[in-house]
Amino acid sequence: MSEYTLKRNPFCASAGLHSLVEICLLAMEKWQIMQWMGMEPLDLSPEFLQNEADLTAYDQFREFGSFLDGLGGLSAEWFSYFNGRELTYNIPNPQVWDVAQNSSSAANDGPSSEPSRPMEERLETPVGSWLPPAPRAGRIVEDFPEDRHGNTVPATSRISDEQHAQIIFALEAFRDVIGPNFKLPSRHALTRYVTACFEGFIRNLPFIHHTWRVIETAMELLLAICAIGAVHCFENRISRQLYEAAKAILMARILREQDRFGPGTADFLHFHKHGTDDRVMEDRVLTTGVSELDWGSWEPIDTVPTLILLTGYAAWAQKVWFVQDALRLQRLLAQILRDLGLQDDEESVPASIERRTATAWHDWVRKESNRRAKLSAFAFIHTASIAYNVYPVVRTSEIFLRLPCTTREWNALTVSQWHAARQTVSIEQLYLQDALRLLLTKSSRPTMLDPLPAPLGNYILLHGLIQRIYLMRDLLLPLVNQTSLPREEAETLERALHSWASGFRLAPESSLDQQNDHGPIPFTCSAMLALAYIRIYQNLGPHRQLDSRDPVQIAAALSRCPPVTRDDNIISAVLYATHALSIPVRLGLDRVARSQFFFWTVRHSLSGLECAVFLSQWLSALACTIDSAPLTDAEFHILQWLRRVVEEAYAFVDFDDGDFEFHGDPAFLSLAVLKVWAHFFKKNAQWPFINVLGESLEKYHGMRVIAQGLPVPANRINDKEVWR
Predict the structure, then answer these.
(1) Confidence of residue 66 (pLDDT cuts 50, 70, 90)
(2) pTM greater than 0.85 (yes/no)
(3) How many independent structural domains does the chain possess?
(4) Which domain covers residue 700, as residue numbers?
């Protein structure tokens, strides 16, 4: 038995055991738990808990366990990390499911207050749907069956020879803007890029409908889609060319059509000219005699999805100057959003009287696409704010839009499917501000939103809550330190996150399987939820300098981050940070890292970075104070879980330094979590930004090794001065 196990606080045992039984739910009988742990049956009622700290741990463990169990069930699998035993499960035969359900119902004292979940979801527990499936056969790009999410990619994404010729002809109208050397890729390449963008970027942030048509879209939007798709296809040279062409056409279009936006956009363009090139392009655009028809069909709203894609490309590219490009584009996007209006264009027709016609469907698609484009723009702008610690240029107080519709409505393939989906809608989605206000309302019980938001709506709400954390820190900065928020505000935000998680767990479209029929957004939400909890207690934003793209500079900034204070209140943040690490470890670090196309977005990586640093600092705090303050029951169980996760990684990962020796003490684990995350990030082959995160964590890990006086690995001797 290790030293930290012996120093566990014996007076907290009942609290941790009760929490674990709650998390385990019905997966195993109480007598089995007692038998395995060599204990006599205990009174597990909350009244038996020792003190207020135990009650806090109980609530935090129960909330975390309920959240994961409601998404397909991690409960018993998670429990096995604590008792050192692997559990096996008998999946019930679907033919006898009704019998099992009736027996289960008879055993309960009363009807369950939680809506029943679909049978196929329950059959996947405990380990089937809480994690996304690993790619098959180690492929870098996974093939997905069309019947799984065929409605995600436009049916006409395959570009014919005739369409390719039409695009080339239309592109000639912009030849003065894009220059004589730009050459459109082949039709096969364009097909590949469009498909990759929709199956990757758009599927993770669905703001373009599957009825989108190649020939009917604005040229700059088509090229922006292809630029992102080329990145997903690992064709970086072509993606850069497509990005530059799309940006040039977009800026020329806005200059030419600035009267259709508003004075704010015109003023922005006037004050943000880079220099001679911009002035030359403006003169060329404003003096040309090319007719509007030659530039193709276009509406001002088309600039929003185009700017989202271009900002997405620039924000995560490798070169430093791309970051400034991204920040400039996002400021332009924010101004255009204000000019177009951050409110619904018109109220939707009530679902009960919706007509079953193609015209009604396409009219609805137009309205919903516009709403989703604006909300997605807000989310993406805020993601850049998180990454680069810049003040949010679009705030939730400016947005008067309803949350997005259900996935079933959005993914409907035909008029009949759409109309049937609409008929199931009894209440339209809440407005964003109303939903946030309800979540932040002080209440002794979780606040349930009615109707429950769709996955994209839940994702937007999380950004709203994370933005509040940033703004509260900004307002209170002279009065508080840079670690945690004041307790009253922290409790308000934790209540809101708890309410959000409770509703998210009950939503029928929520599942942590990124290949589920409703898309991978719930998987992304779980990463953002971890980030939100961490941001309450650690303000890592000013201590990253990710815009430098310099791993040494980033690592040095991380080393200046204020330490995490050991506190019972941060248990929820620690739980979610540990869960974030367990996902890629469980699926295989290298396999996931090399298959991040559909799987792992930059948003996951931003969350993973903060999870890594936060968890490492928490473990360091344990190591430094364990002699004077024994482990609480909650800390003990998390440490056991984390030990198993890291041990799994060390057993199967080929680390670059060849160091595979594993120890279970907190000091070792504090360095190990950095090492595991760094290895994971460095194996990404898609976005260079993620590789920079990996190199930065590796440097930060080295600095921590030297600071603790540990030996430097033989193949890292030359890095020693850099680590200093």
Answers:
(1) low
(2) no
(3) 2
(4) 538-723
